[in-house]
Amino acid sequence: MQRRIFIGSLRRCKSRAVISVLAIALGASLIVAAVNLRGSIRGKLAEELRSYGANLLLVPATGPFLQEKDLLILEDNRVKDRLIGYVPFLHRVASLQGRDTVIAGTRLVAIKKLSPWWQVNGRWPERKNEALAGFNVASKLGLRVGDSVTVSQAKSRITLSIAGIVRTGGAEEHQLIVDLEEVQLLTGLPGLLSSVLVSSRAENGLDRTVAFLQREWRGAEVRTLLQVARAEESVLSRLQFFLMVIGILVLFASGLSVFATMATAALERKVEMALMRALGAEKRQIAWIFASEAAAIGGVGGLLGSALGLILAQVIGLSVFRALVLPSLMSLPTGIAIGVGIALLSSLSVVRKTAAIAPAVVLKGE
Question: Which residue among 20, 127, 156, 363 has the highest number of C-beta atoms inside a 10 angstrom radius?
Fold first, then answer.
């Protein structure tokens, strides 16, 4: 009997039920899309922001140099998974064609990975006797790709071939960028470094990386490159907050729609419910009818919202990041749970008032 009443009720209020289902589906779809996009968006956004350079700088805390052997600390498993990469540097002043020029010794393969936005006219060096000339250095000295230059300091000298001319918009345009070992040999400073640039994933805890390096690398002072690090963490935090606020607002609107549907149904059927109570129906039976209707609306809306949320996540992923978003295993359970939960919560007061209806008052005069 309760099942027949339940089915008949849904048929009579079909149009209102459809509106409520669509409202819940809209809210659930945004939440499901957010669940699917959350990891992908943060990861891809962090990857995009990381392309603008490192966010940590290690410099000597005491003394003029860092020890190259201490780079093993950055390979520690406790921090390695939070690092995208690191680049050691040894900066010294040397004579280049009779002019004092800053020579930057580094690992060229590592700097190419860490700074993909560098614009190189020519090609990246592939051998130790090749170098990148900063744009300003090349302009002042008239250097071109393929030129051979001699760099000297004190009694040491090396001959290098200019593989490319680099533009970065930074200090690198005033430097000659050479293989690290070449500069260490030229200056007589084997195993020594001036600084280390580190790129750490902000979404995995930039503060944890800083704390680890300060604790383990006693000879280094860790500086945060605030312009990059703060921008990354700010964008990621705001994105997460935006998705949460939009989801809450839409779910609130969905709840109002379900409440209006159930309240209207209760008003239209109060005589029917009063008659059932007069004939011996218990309060829990009356409550079951309305709660079942709400749960059915929420379940269908949540199921539809899960499907729409997966589609929406793919559309956003392709249009913004040009990549498919892997569906989360939590999509379907999340959509249905949100739909049923919002529907039951929104109709709770209606169910309670309908179950507590006084038959004598309602049926008086009928």
Answer: 20
**Confidence band (pLDDT; 50, 70, 90) for 363?**
low
Per-residue pLDDT at 203: 57
pLDDT above 90: residue 7: no
Distance (Å) of CA 165 to CA 52, 117, 144, 149, 180: 19, 14, 8, 14, 18
* pLDDT tens digits along 197-236: 998 876 556 778 888 999 999 899 998 775 555 555 566 5
Whole-structure pTM value: 0.57
Round to whole Å and give the CA distance between 320 and 48: 12
Do 289 and 200 sit in the same domain of this protein? no
Answer with the one of 178, 201, 224 that is the final residue of a domain: 224
- Could you give the C-alpha distances from 287 to 74, 133, 352, in angstroms and in order? 62, 79, 7
Alpha carbon distance 276, 73 (integer Å): 76
Look up the domain containing 171 and give its range.
Answer: 55-224
Token pair recorded at residue 104: 């930057």
Picking from 224, 248, 263, the residue at the C-terminal end of a domain is: 224
Does residue 188 form part of some domain? yes
